[in-house]
User: Fold DUF5011 domain-containing protein from Sporolactobacillus terrae.
Amino acid sequence: MKKILTSWIAALLILGIIGSVFPAQAKAAAGSYQEPYRNQYHYSAKQNWLNDPNGLIKYDGVYHMFYQYNPQGNEWGNMSWGHATSTDLVHWKEQDVAIPESDENAWVDFWMKTKDDAKPVHYLGRPTTNWDVWNPNGKRYIFSGSVILDKDNVAGFGKNTLIAYYTSTYQVAVRDDDYSKDQLGNLLGIREVQEQNMAYSTDGGKTFKKYNNQNPVIPVTQVPTSDAGNFRDPKVVYDEANKQWVMPVVSGQEVDLFTSTNLKDWTFQSAIKRAHDVGNGVWECPELIPMKVKGTNKTKWVLSLSVQQGAPAGGSGMQYFIGNFDGKKFIPDSDETMKNPQWLDFGEDFYAGVTFGETPGRTIMLGWMSNWNYVGEQKTTPWHGEMTLPRELTLVRDNSGYSLKQAPVKEVNQLSQGETALDVRKIHARAQSEKTIDIKNFSGTQYKVSADFSWKKNQAPNRLGVKLRASEDGSKYVAVGYDPSSKQVYLDRTKDGESITRQNTKVKLDGNPTNIKLAVYVDTSSIEVFVNNGEKVLTQVVYPNPEQPSDSKGLAFFAESGKVTITRAVGEHFESIWGNNPTINAPDHQTVSYRSEFDPLDGVRAQDPKDGDLTSAIKVSGDKVNTKKPGTYRITYTVSNVAGVQAKHQTTVRVTPREKK
Assistant:
């Protein structure tokens, strides 16, 4: 999504960073969505590169997820809008590419003075995406943007048209007005250009038509900062109070606000200046979100942004600011607001999050689960890139001001196979030692585990928490824990077998708590931690035990040097959204003769798409069938796969009476 990517990828290839990160067994299996590191309840494309979500909207009962997508390969490039749909925010169906990269574009011809020019220069030539001034390919990438529903035919395309706004990105030759060497002017080189374009769909998002022969609605010549190569990511929102549409667009170190009443003509109104970590990368994916403060009728405006550098865990991340909007300007709550961003996530892998449109009463955000600093570590195949769980945002106020709380949308609960009480209550660790309690009645690779921890101040441990995705011998694991002395919740992946040395995924809690609530969503290659009912969140991509991925199912609780009480420790296995769940083939009813031989497993089979034949793992419970005693018996077959997902099947067995002679 940024012009640095071409050189970035080339550098990684030279250094050998992008390559065979995982061993042979981690490569794609024969079936779709069954690969060893494929998340099973987070969205990913069937194949190819995916990044930022775009144009999230609900229309006619269907949620639409558009996103940055490379239809031609598993690396960044050929940027287009991929598309997936859902009726429940959980089960997604991949659709055809919605807006493909533009090709055979007309010549570009305009003059512009950028911040780096002493005088206007001539942008002239065939657009290209290959940075080759002598062999332009005539293409323009489709970068990030948004989709709105034109219910009242404001734009003139018809009622209930879906209108997409996106950034068109390309490079073009630049010349000056010295014609002594060339009749077109002296060639200065090639530069990036970014403009805001429009497309519309009259068939409910299945297909889009690019507006006005692909000419922009906000051309690069209208960039307030004159930064031609960093002007992107329009996220249009309706301003009810002023009866207008508002389009925030980033321009380097600021957000520029444009407004429109007809959805075609846009007027610049004001700029929001960056005041924190200025110059450390650029802002991206801006959004102005009007939200009701919980428990009131008061509306505040939340400005959310993604930053390429400077996030708490290092690299890219997301921040937000609270204020008001007067129809032209965003007004921060105080003079210090813009200097002190709040962070949406304290893990390494939450980026480019935007909210769904047309979900009244709900603010639902979806993000890309990655980080531009180390995206090369996610070199999976045949897919690359996954989304977080959709999160519902709530704006709350306390003595310290306004903040956002987050929780996975309630629809995710439909994947749960029910709660299992975990067999742990207290941990008493001796001084300078760690005590670990292995959980025997719960394991797997896709689940939610939640627990409440408490301790007395004079018995506070040095650390406490849960070990996830542990190997059978306990030597490899990912730790999610809390350090009472530093008041930091942390996620530590340095012992999961990946040879990762970074330990930056952590967040400090306010006050001096003697209890903490953790809700952790674990999937095949990701962990999302919600602390104290969503006050803080940490999102992390992980690839446990790459030498033996199947040996990463264990779960344990731990404490060091103290006493900890654990209440409501619960595990919930989550079903696969791709259908990779075990099944049992058994009759619903059976009739057996008096005193005949009966084997409850005879003819019963279990299958699992990912893990093969599970027949040997079938368990039989319920009534013990006694063929010497006529009557009706009910038995239950149960089987679990490696992920811990279970299948059950109930069968009624009727033993016939003894025949009369």
Observations:
- The two ends are 84 Å apart (CA to CA).
- Residues 5-15 form the longest helix (11 residues).
